[in-house]
Amino acid sequence: MIHFQDQLSRFRVPTNDKFKLKDFDPAWNGDGKVPEEERKRYAESLLAEGIKDLAEAQNLLYASDTWSLLVIFQAMDAAGKDGTIKHVLSGVNPQGCQVYSFKQPSSEELDHDFLWRCAKALPERGRIGIFNRSYYEEVLVVKVHPEYLHAQRLPESDVSTPKFWKHRYKSINNFERHLARNGTRIIKFFLNVSKEEQKRRFLERIDDPKKHWKFSPTDIAERGHWSEYMDAYDEMLHATTTKWAPWYVIPADHKWVARAAVATILTQEIKQLDLKYPEPSEAVKGALEASRQKLMGED
User: Fold this and answer.
1) How far apart are CA 137 and CA 98, in angstroms?
2) Tens digits of per-residue pLDDT, 131-153?
3) pTM above 0.70?
4) What strands, in cross-sheet order, belong to the sheet with 247-251?
5) Pairing label, strands 247-251, 128-132
Protein backbone atom coordinates (compact mmCIF):
# COMPACT_ATOMS: atom_id res chain seq x y z
CA MET A 1 0.00 0.00 0.00
CA ILE A 2 1.04 3.63 -0.17
CA HIS A 3 2.19 3.54 3.48
CA PHE A 4 1.39 7.17 4.22
CA GLN A 5 1.24 6.63 7.95
CA ASP A 6 4.79 5.22 8.02
CA GLN A 7 6.16 7.78 5.58
CA LEU A 8 4.73 11.00 7.07
CA SER A 9 7.37 11.24 9.77
CA ARG A 10 10.02 11.08 7.05
CA PHE A 11 8.54 14.13 5.34
CA ARG A 12 9.31 16.17 8.45
CA VAL A 13 12.58 18.07 8.23
CA PRO A 14 14.84 16.96 11.10
CA THR A 15 16.19 19.52 13.55
CA ASN A 16 19.75 18.29 13.16
CA ASP A 17 22.52 18.51 10.60
CA LYS A 18 21.42 15.50 8.56
CA PHE A 19 18.98 17.33 6.27
CA LYS A 20 19.56 17.54 2.54
CA LEU A 21 16.73 18.50 0.20
CA LYS A 22 18.11 16.21 -2.51
CA ASP A 23 17.30 13.25 -0.27
CA PHE A 24 13.55 13.98 -0.62
CA ASP A 25 12.07 12.47 -3.78
CA PRO A 26 9.45 14.79 -5.35
CA ALA A 27 8.04 11.87 -7.36
CA TRP A 28 7.42 9.53 -4.39
CA ASN A 29 3.97 7.97 -4.62
CA GLY A 30 4.01 4.96 -2.33
CA ASP A 31 4.84 1.31 -2.65
CA GLY A 32 5.66 0.62 -6.29
CA LYS A 33 4.63 -3.01 -5.83
CA VAL A 34 0.99 -1.91 -5.52
CA PRO A 35 -0.88 -0.84 -8.69
CA GLU A 36 -1.04 2.95 -9.03
CA GLU A 37 -4.85 3.00 -9.25
CA GLU A 38 -5.03 1.25 -5.90
CA ARG A 39 -2.59 3.75 -4.42
CA LYS A 40 -4.67 6.60 -5.79
CA ARG A 41 -7.87 5.22 -4.27
CA TYR A 42 -6.16 4.87 -0.91
CA ALA A 43 -4.83 8.44 -1.12
CA GLU A 44 -8.31 9.70 -2.01
CA SER A 45 -9.75 7.93 1.04
CA LEU A 46 -7.09 9.54 3.23
CA LEU A 47 -7.90 12.95 1.76
CA ALA A 48 -11.63 12.47 2.38
CA GLU A 49 -10.94 11.36 5.95
CA GLY A 50 -8.59 14.31 6.45
CA ILE A 51 -11.18 16.78 5.16
CA LYS A 52 -13.76 15.41 7.59
CA ASP A 53 -11.34 15.41 10.52
CA LEU A 54 -10.18 18.93 9.72
CA ALA A 55 -13.77 20.21 9.75
CA GLU A 56 -14.30 18.69 13.21
CA ALA A 57 -10.95 20.03 14.38
CA GLN A 58 -11.94 23.50 13.27
CA ASN A 59 -15.11 23.30 15.39
CA LEU A 60 -12.99 22.31 18.39
CA LEU A 61 -10.48 25.04 17.64
CA TYR A 62 -13.24 27.66 17.53
CA ALA A 63 -15.08 26.38 20.60
CA SER A 64 -12.00 26.09 22.81
CA ASP A 65 -10.82 29.59 21.75
CA THR A 66 -7.31 28.85 23.06
CA TRP A 67 -5.22 28.05 19.99
CA SER A 68 -4.98 29.34 16.46
CA LEU A 69 -3.45 27.41 13.58
CA LEU A 70 -1.09 28.96 11.02
CA VAL A 71 -0.37 26.87 7.94
CA ILE A 72 2.37 28.09 5.60
CA PHE A 73 2.82 26.89 2.02
CA GLN A 74 5.99 27.54 0.04
CA ALA A 75 6.89 26.09 -3.34
CA MET A 76 8.24 26.72 -6.78
CA ASP A 77 5.74 27.85 -9.43
CA ALA A 78 3.21 25.20 -10.57
CA ALA A 79 3.84 22.98 -7.54
CA GLY A 80 0.14 22.94 -6.70
CA LYS A 81 -0.25 25.25 -3.70
CA ASP A 82 -3.62 26.67 -4.77
CA GLY A 83 -5.09 23.26 -5.59
CA THR A 84 -3.83 21.72 -2.36
CA ILE A 85 -5.34 24.53 -0.28
CA LYS A 86 -8.62 24.27 -2.20
CA HIS A 87 -8.99 20.50 -1.79
CA VAL A 88 -7.69 20.05 1.76
CA LEU A 89 -9.80 22.89 3.19
CA SER A 90 -12.91 22.14 1.15
CA GLY A 91 -14.83 20.98 4.24
CA VAL A 92 -13.81 23.84 6.53
CA ASN A 93 -16.31 26.54 7.46
CA PRO A 94 -15.17 29.71 5.64
CA GLN A 95 -16.00 31.76 8.74
CA GLY A 96 -13.27 29.95 10.65
CA CYS A 97 -10.56 30.10 8.00
CA GLN A 98 -8.67 32.85 6.20
CA VAL A 99 -6.29 32.56 3.24
CA TYR A 100 -3.68 35.19 2.41
CA SER A 101 -1.57 35.23 -0.73
CA PHE A 102 1.45 37.52 -0.46
CA LYS A 103 2.59 39.18 -3.66
CA GLN A 104 5.15 41.90 -4.31
CA PRO A 105 5.28 44.17 -1.23
CA SER A 106 3.69 47.62 -1.40
CA SER A 107 5.52 50.86 -0.59
CA GLU A 108 3.87 50.89 2.85
CA GLU A 109 5.03 47.32 3.53
CA LEU A 110 8.55 48.16 2.41
CA ASP A 111 8.64 50.91 5.04
CA HIS A 112 8.29 48.26 7.78
CA ASP A 113 10.37 45.26 8.77
CA PHE A 114 10.03 42.17 6.56
CA LEU A 115 7.74 40.34 9.02
CA TRP A 116 5.25 43.18 9.42
CA ARG A 117 2.84 42.51 6.57
CA CYS A 118 2.50 38.85 7.56
CA ALA A 119 2.13 39.67 11.25
CA LYS A 120 -0.93 41.78 10.36
CA ALA A 121 -2.56 38.76 8.75
CA LEU A 122 -2.07 36.24 11.57
CA PRO A 123 -5.17 34.23 12.59
CA GLU A 124 -6.83 35.08 15.89
CA ARG A 125 -7.59 32.40 18.46
CA GLY A 126 -10.01 29.79 17.24
CA ARG A 127 -9.24 30.29 13.56
CA ILE A 128 -7.10 28.69 10.87
CA GLY A 129 -4.85 30.98 8.86
CA ILE A 130 -3.32 29.91 5.55
CA PHE A 131 -0.33 31.74 4.10
CA ASN A 132 0.11 31.08 0.37
CA ARG A 133 3.75 32.17 0.36
CA SER A 134 4.90 34.20 3.36
CA TYR A 135 7.79 35.98 5.03
CA TYR A 136 9.91 33.08 3.81
CA GLU A 137 10.03 34.82 0.45
CA GLU A 138 12.48 37.15 2.18
CA VAL A 139 15.06 34.35 2.40
CA LEU A 140 14.15 32.75 -0.92
CA VAL A 141 13.26 35.05 -3.81
CA VAL A 142 15.11 37.94 -2.15
CA LYS A 143 18.16 35.73 -1.72
CA VAL A 144 18.08 34.73 -5.38
CA HIS A 145 17.44 38.39 -6.34
CA PRO A 146 19.36 40.42 -3.73
CA GLU A 147 18.73 43.58 -5.76
CA TYR A 148 15.20 43.56 -4.29
CA LEU A 149 16.73 44.52 -0.95
CA HIS A 150 17.57 47.98 -2.26
CA ALA A 151 13.88 48.90 -2.01
CA GLN A 152 13.93 47.99 1.69
CA ARG A 153 16.59 50.63 2.42
CA LEU A 154 18.13 48.58 5.22
CA PRO A 155 21.12 49.81 7.20
CA GLU A 156 24.20 47.64 6.84
CA SER A 157 22.46 45.22 4.47
CA ASP A 158 25.48 43.45 3.01
CA VAL A 159 23.79 40.42 1.49
CA SER A 160 27.11 39.04 0.31
CA THR A 161 27.85 37.80 3.84
CA PRO A 162 26.30 34.68 5.43
CA LYS A 163 25.76 36.79 8.55
CA PHE A 164 22.93 38.75 6.90
CA TRP A 165 20.91 35.64 6.12
CA LYS A 166 21.64 34.05 9.49
CA HIS A 167 20.15 37.13 11.12
CA ARG A 168 17.02 36.75 9.01
CA TYR A 169 16.68 33.08 9.90
CA LYS A 170 17.10 34.01 13.56
CA SER A 171 14.42 36.71 13.29
CA ILE A 172 12.01 34.20 11.76
CA ASN A 173 12.71 31.55 14.40
CA ASN A 174 12.28 34.06 17.22
CA PHE A 175 9.04 35.34 15.68
CA GLU A 176 7.61 31.84 15.36
CA ARG A 177 8.74 30.94 18.88
CA HIS A 178 6.89 33.98 20.19
CA LEU A 179 3.73 32.94 18.32
CA ALA A 180 3.96 29.38 19.63
CA ARG A 181 4.31 30.60 23.22
CA ASN A 182 1.15 32.62 22.76
CA GLY A 183 -1.08 29.93 21.32
CA THR A 184 -0.42 29.74 17.59
CA ARG A 185 0.45 26.30 16.25
CA ILE A 186 2.55 26.65 13.10
CA ILE A 187 2.79 23.97 10.41
CA LYS A 188 4.89 24.62 7.31
CA PHE A 189 4.75 22.76 3.99
CA PHE A 190 7.23 22.89 1.14
CA LEU A 191 5.57 21.32 -1.91
CA ASN A 192 8.55 19.69 -3.56
CA VAL A 193 8.02 19.55 -7.32
CA SER A 194 10.70 18.38 -9.74
CA LYS A 195 12.01 20.55 -12.57
CA GLU A 196 10.71 18.00 -15.09
CA GLU A 197 7.19 18.05 -13.66
CA GLN A 198 7.18 21.84 -13.53
CA LYS A 199 8.03 21.88 -17.23
CA ARG A 200 5.14 19.53 -17.99
CA ARG A 201 2.69 21.70 -16.04
CA PHE A 202 3.94 24.90 -17.68
CA LEU A 203 3.43 23.37 -21.14
CA GLU A 204 -0.05 22.25 -20.10
CA ARG A 205 -0.89 25.81 -19.11
CA ILE A 206 0.46 27.19 -22.39
CA ASP A 207 -1.46 24.62 -24.48
CA ASP A 208 -4.79 24.96 -22.65
CA PRO A 209 -6.57 28.33 -23.23
CA LYS A 210 -8.48 27.84 -19.97
CA LYS A 211 -5.19 27.85 -18.08
CA HIS A 212 -3.50 30.80 -19.79
CA TRP A 213 -4.36 33.01 -16.83
CA LYS A 214 -2.18 30.81 -14.63
CA PHE A 215 0.92 31.42 -16.71
CA SER A 216 3.29 34.38 -16.84
CA PRO A 217 6.52 34.82 -18.82
CA THR A 218 8.20 35.64 -15.51
CA ASP A 219 7.62 32.00 -14.55
CA ILE A 220 10.12 30.99 -17.23
CA ALA A 221 12.57 33.63 -16.07
CA GLU A 222 12.41 32.30 -12.51
CA ARG A 223 12.80 28.74 -13.76
CA GLY A 224 16.18 29.83 -15.08
CA HIS A 225 17.27 30.25 -11.44
CA TRP A 226 16.22 26.73 -10.46
CA SER A 227 19.57 25.69 -8.96
CA GLU A 228 19.81 28.91 -6.96
CA TYR A 229 16.32 28.39 -5.58
CA MET A 230 17.08 24.81 -4.60
CA ASP A 231 20.15 25.99 -2.71
CA ALA A 232 18.10 28.70 -1.00
CA TYR A 233 15.38 26.21 -0.02
CA ASP A 234 17.93 23.72 1.23
CA GLU A 235 19.53 26.28 3.55
CA MET A 236 16.24 27.83 4.64
CA LEU A 237 14.55 24.52 5.51
CA HIS A 238 17.56 23.43 7.53
CA ALA A 239 17.83 26.76 9.37
CA THR A 240 14.15 27.28 10.22
CA THR A 241 12.66 23.90 11.04
CA THR A 242 12.02 23.75 14.79
CA LYS A 243 10.04 21.72 17.29
CA TRP A 244 7.53 24.55 17.60
CA ALA A 245 7.27 25.27 13.86
CA PRO A 246 8.27 22.21 11.81
CA TRP A 247 8.76 22.04 8.06
CA TYR A 248 7.39 19.16 6.01
CA VAL A 249 8.80 18.45 2.54
CA ILE A 250 5.87 17.06 0.58
CA PRO A 251 6.43 15.14 -2.69
CA ALA A 252 4.39 17.15 -5.19
CA ASP A 253 4.93 15.57 -8.60
CA HIS A 254 1.67 13.66 -8.01
CA LYS A 255 -1.06 16.00 -6.80
CA TRP A 256 -3.06 13.17 -5.23
CA VAL A 257 -0.06 12.34 -3.03
CA ALA A 258 0.53 15.94 -1.95
CA ARG A 259 -3.11 16.59 -1.04
CA ALA A 260 -3.51 13.39 0.96
CA ALA A 261 -0.23 13.97 2.79
CA VAL A 262 -1.04 17.57 3.73
CA ALA A 263 -4.54 16.67 4.94
CA THR A 264 -3.27 13.78 7.05
CA ILE A 265 -0.41 15.76 8.59
CA LEU A 266 -2.67 18.70 9.43
CA THR A 267 -5.20 16.54 11.25
CA GLN A 268 -2.44 14.72 13.13
CA GLU A 269 -0.85 18.00 14.21
CA ILE A 270 -4.18 19.44 15.40
CA LYS A 271 -4.98 16.29 17.36
CA GLN A 272 -1.72 16.76 19.28
CA LEU A 273 -3.16 19.99 20.69
CA ASP A 274 -5.64 17.79 22.60
CA LEU A 275 -8.48 20.25 22.08
CA LYS A 276 -11.73 19.76 23.99
CA TYR A 277 -15.09 21.45 24.01
CA PRO A 278 -15.25 23.81 27.03
CA GLU A 279 -17.04 22.55 30.13
CA PRO A 280 -19.84 24.90 31.25
CA SER A 281 -19.63 26.38 34.73
CA GLU A 282 -22.23 25.54 37.38
CA ALA A 283 -23.88 28.89 36.74
CA VAL A 284 -24.11 28.16 33.03
CA LYS A 285 -25.47 24.68 33.72
CA GLY A 286 -28.14 26.22 35.91
CA ALA A 287 -29.07 28.70 33.21
CA LEU A 288 -29.27 25.90 30.64
CA GLU A 289 -31.59 23.88 32.85
CA ALA A 290 -33.77 26.92 33.53
CA SER A 291 -34.00 27.54 29.79
CA ARG A 292 -34.93 23.90 29.22
CA GLN A 293 -37.73 24.08 31.77
CA LYS A 294 -39.05 27.28 30.31
CA LEU A 295 -39.09 25.83 26.79
CA MET A 296 -40.73 22.60 27.96
CA GLY A 297 -43.41 24.61 29.74
CA GLU A 298 -44.51 26.45 26.62
CA ASP A 299 -47.93 25.62 25.18
Assistant:
1) 20
2) 999 999 999 999 999 999 888 88
3) yes
4) 97-101, 128-132, 68-75, 184-192, 247-251
5) unpaired
